[in-house]
Design a protein that fits this description.
- By secondary structure, the protein is of the alpha/beta class.
- It is built from 10 helices and 10 strands.
- It has a 10-stranded mixed beta sheet, sandwiched between helices.
- A hairpin with a 4-residue loop joins strand 9 and strand 10.
- It is globular, with a radius of gyration of 18 Å.
- About 40% of the residues are buried.
Length: about 300
């Protein structure tokens, strides 16, 4: 039996706890209330509960999303403490999805969280996506097979509006959106799902995650971490940047506010939004050409 934390809803408590977000959800009290109802009734799946995914799950719970699915096969270790919500000396060795589910549920007790401790697999991807309105792909860099399975399940299910992914890139983030009509991730990656993680394949993966080169350190330094150390190097101050973009974009999509005049639409893949906190640069990049797109 899959573990599920069942939320207990209290209408008075709910509207108190989400009150301060309301002004940003519409021009009138009625518009604001209607937008919050969309968040309350939504289900969001977060695949990957590490530095970005775990924080996104808890932030969405704070935002008033009452139904979450979380998936991650990994356990917290000491290297996670520099950046991952839920990673503490008390949770080292515990499953990430389990810990994040507890955190999201414990905030107000009204959020229901379904836990996929085995992570995303070809066998359970459709079950994970079923019932979701938005899916977040925040899985480990190296998981090609699981990522493809998640996206295939999304394209097969008409309910989810999109898959969103926000990634740490040095001091900033890259953000991607996949829709039912956009370029599929298999086409963008151009790699078989059972590709051996050779140095060449890892270099290709890095190029897919990073739409633009960072200022420092050198590419060779990062490749050494990814290829020889088999670790994704992550600066502790960067995941909150990616989390913010992922949560805000999810909220805009769920409330129907990702449109003019409320917000600029994030174009789907092969487009990517890129922000560099060290240079204060933000731009849309066509990843098929590597060129900036003016808006």
């Amino acid at each position: 039996m899959r573990e599920k934390f069942i939320g207990t809803y209290d209408d008075d408590v709910y509207w108190q706890r989400v009150d301060r977000s309301q002004a940003w959800l519409g021009e009138t009290d009625e518009e604001q209330h209607a937008a919050q109802l969309k968040l309350r009734g939504a289900t969001v799946g977060i695949a990957g509960c590490g530095g970005i995914g775990g924080a996104v799950a808890v932030r969405l719970a704070r935002l008033g999303v009452l139904n979450l699915k979380v998936a991650d096969p990994d356990a917290f270790d000491w290297t996670n403490i520099n950046r991952q919500l839920g990673a503490t000396r008390h949770t080292v060795g515990r499953n990430k999805a389990q810990v994040v589910a507890e955190l999201a549920h414990d905030l107000a007790g009204d959020v229901t969280v379904e836990v996929f401790e085995e992570g995303i697999t070809p066998e359970n991807a459709e079950e994970f996506v079923a019932g979701c309105d938005v899916v977040l792909d925040q899985m480990d860099f190296y998981l090609i097979r699981a990522r493809y399975a998640l996206h295939r399940a999304f394209r097969k299910d008409p309910r989810p509006l999109c898959v969103l992914s926000a990634w740490c890139v040095g001091w900033g983030t890259s953000v991607y959106k996949y829709t039912h009509d956009s370029e599929p991730i298999e086409e963008r990656y151009g790699l078989p799902e059972d590709a051996e993680l050779t140095p060449e394949v890892i270099k290709e993966l890095m190029e897919k995650f990073v739409p633009k080169a960072w200022r420092f350190p050198s590419v060779e330094v990062i490749e050494d971490w990814l290829i020889n150390k088999r670790k994704v190097p992550l600066f502790a101050g960067t995941p909150p940047i990616a989390e913010a973009h992922a949560v805000q974009r999810t909220a805009l999509v769920l409330t129907g506010l990702e449109r003019e005049p409320y917000a600029t639409v994030l174009p789907p893949s092969p487009m990517s939004f890129f922000y560099d906190g060290s240079t204060l640069e933000a731009e849309l990049i066509d990843t098929s050409t590597g060129k900036r797109v003016d808006t």
